[in-house]
Every structure is written in C-alpha cells, then in structure tokens.
Amino acid sequence: MDIAGESWAFTQYTVHPFDPVLNIYYAQARMYDAGDRRFMAVDIIKGSVSNVQTILPYIYCLNNPLVYIDLFGLQENPVDALKKIIDDPGEIDSFKFSKNETHYYVRDVFEILGGTVDLVKGSVFNKGSVTVSLTYDNKSITIKYDLLVAYPYNICTYGATVESPSLDQTKNNYVVVTHHPGKNKSYIELNKLLEYFKKIWCEPRNTGYTPSRKPRPTPTPTPPKTSTQILVYSPMLERFIKDYEKCSLISYDANPPLGDWTIGWGHKLHEYIGNKNNPNISWTQAEADSTFTSDLNRMINTTFVPFLKDNNIMLSQNQFDAMTSFTYNFGEYTWDANTGYETIRNFISAGDYSQAATRVAFSMYMGSRQPDGLIARRNDEIEMFLYSDYSRDYNYTRPR
C-alpha cells in the first residue's frame, strides 16, 4: 500500500497498515501506537455512561483487541458492539415488553454504537418523528418512526421502518419500537436489529471467543401454515380462555357500575345489561360448562370462520387459537366488515405474520381505557400466535 509516496506493510494484529519508520499503525481516522496500546488522538465519537469504557478517548476496541476490530479508528464493528450489548446490557435503561422480550432505550443503545437519534417535534395529532442513524465502513442504517398521540398511560408499539442501501428495499424492513409515555422514552427490540446489522455489515472475525454469558434463548418459531384450513379450536385454547375468564356460578357486574351482568365462563346476560340491580341468577357447574362450549362455537362460527373461508386464509393451529381467544373477548361480530375492527382483519388478510406486524396489530386493542388484565391477555395472545405459547403468564401493571 502506498500513502503519500511511502511504503506501508500490513500486519495481522489490527488489520491496519504499519509504518516501520514511525513504529505506529495508520488506523484511518487516527494513528495507533501498539506499544502504548493507545490511539494518538482522542476519539471524535462521544461515549455513553451506559458503557463507561466508551467514554475513554484513547483506548482501542474497549481494550479487547482479541474480540473486536476497529477498521477506521472510530469505534468497534456495529455487529460486535450490538452483540455485546445483547449479551450484557449493563446499566442501559430497559423496558420489559413481554416475558420473552426486553426492549432497550434507543438513545442509550445508539450512543454506544456511535449513532445519532434526532427528534423533530410535531403538531397536535403527531408528537413528532424520530430518525435514528448509524454509519460505519461506508455503510449506513436509518430507522424512522412517528410518535403518535396516545392516552397518558398507553404504551405505543411501532413498526419502525429500517432503511439502508445494503438492504432489499422491495421488502418491508422494520423493527419493533415501543414508546413508554410514563418515561417519555422509546425502546427498541435488539435481536431483530442485529439481523439487519448482519445484513449490512460483515460478520465479525472468528476468534474462538465464547461470551461469558449464555446467549438468550431463541423463541420457538411459529409452525408453517398448513395447506388445510384449521377451523376448530384446540383443547389448549379452551383451557387458556377459562384461565382468563374464571367461572362464577352467580351473576356479577363485570364492569361496575355499568351493569355488565355476567355469569359462568364470561357469559353475558344480555337481557339484564344496563340494570342497576343484580338479577341474582345462579347456575350449576354443568350449566356453566355447557354454555361456555356453546358460546365459544358461536363466537368462531358467526363471522370468524366464514371470514377465513371467504378469503381462503390458512392459519396454523396456534394462530387460529389466538384469534379465537381474541374473538371470544370482543364478540362474535368482530370479523364483520361494519364493526370497526379493520386493523385485525387487515392483518389476518395480509398474511404478514412476522413478530413486528403481529405486535403492531394487537397493540391497537391495548388502549389506556382497557383494564390491565385485558392488556395482559392481548400480550399472551401475541405469544400464542407467534410462539405456540399457551401459558397465561404475562403480568401487566399500568405505569403510574
């Protein structure tokens, strides 16, 4: 290699050209002194308190050259850096989105990576737009999403668009971002982001290094769609709904003081709805169980099954079960075109059942006016739809 008329020789230590006269390495943005194990100029990229080593202006690759390389004297490879954050997020602010998924504060993550986060304030109906950018090795990634107006305690989920010249722009590239109004911060899902990083930047070199922490478990993938329409719910779904509904053999007001009189496994006593006084109806367990089976079949056969048949939609068993639970909660006319559930109908019709698309569709029915139990139920239905997880174990407490 020839720079400014001088001959430079490559070595295998830092993959940077070495100057035998000055006894230093040319690391693009800065010169590196291997003897002192330090750069000879400060890092122009600011660090973050979430990763203290990034604040030190002269160190090379977080003092770990056996694991990381720094091609331009600026920062470690984004793939390496993001893997390290995933393995050990340290003090990065985080938000437990579900029992299987934690999101991390966007600004903390991208400050460590050497990127930027810009907010342009919006108007009454749009709180602003966020643009997250990162450039390394002449390649870049840009993530964009709008902060929509929401109720004070409504946690919003966005399918943030991902843009890069290195990605196939004919596909819908997006990553899940949640905005927590209580903290007034946005949080991002890192495993999907890492997939895009790998597509944009090359994989890190193989050093034989094994992380000190075990990698996070990969969720069980959703089974592939079947060529035969599944139109009958499973016994596991029946148990799931019963666990949420619980059984009462005497009538009660499900939404006091509105007079939402209910009995059995969530059966509505429509003839008494709106009355102030409890009708004091009692059932036997056999009556409750029989009515539950009748109600569940009515829920799926009124509009849901016809909707699937009319549109020739093939769902796997877990996907069908998740939407059956959703239908049992919202009513047998959920899938009718005139009932105001366009988002969930369009989601099922489109056939994009990726994690981001699924979470965005379900999040539309998790508004701040919904009780905590129903928000938890929507998240459990998401996990059933995506991962065949039928356990009722999502706990949600509204931020105060």
The share of residues in helices is 25-40%
Poorly predicted spans: 1-12, 203-218
Number of domains: 3
What is the overall pLDDT average? 77
Summed up, the helix count is 9
- Gross morphology: elongated
Largest beta sheet: strand ordering: 8-9-15-14-13-12-11-10
The string of secondary-structure elements, in order, is EEEEEEEHEEHEEEEEEHHEEEHHHHH
How much of the sequence lies in strands comes to 15-25%
Determine the N-to-C terminus distance.
61 Å
Second rung of CATH, namely the architecture of the largest domain: Orthogonal Bundle
Structural class: alpha+beta
Radius of gyration: 27 Å
| Annotation, overall tally of beta strands | 18
- What name does CATH use for the topology of the largest domain? Lysozyme
Largest sheet report: 8 strands, antiparallel
CATH top level label of the largest domain? Mainly Alpha
Write a structural description.
The chain is an alpha+beta fold and 400 residues long. The protein contains 9 helices and 18 strands. Helix 1 (78-87) runs antiparallel to helix 3.
Summary of the model, kept short:
The chain is an alpha+beta fold and 400 residues long. It folds into three domains: 2-73, no CATH class; 94-200, no CATH class; 235-387, Lysozyme.
Task: For the structure shown, list the relevant keywords.
single chain, 400 residues, alpha+beta, Lysozyme, eight-stranded antiparallel β-sheet, five-stranded antiparallel β-sheet
Topology:
Layout: E1 2-3, E2 6-7, E3 9-10, E4 17-19, E5 24-27, E6 30-33, E7 38-39, H1 78-87, E8 94-98, E9 101-105, H2 106-113, E10 116-121, E11 126-136, E12 139-148, E13 156-163, E14 174-180, E15 185-188, H3 190-200, H4 235-245, E16 248-253, E17 261-264, E18 267-268, H5 285-310, H6 317-330, H7 342-350, H8 355-363, H9 372-387
Antiparallel strand pairs: 1-2, 3-4, 4-5, 5-6, 6-7, 8-9, 9-15, 10-11, 11-12, 12-13, 13-14, 14-15, 16-17, 17-18
Helix pairs in contact: 1-3, 6-9, 8-9
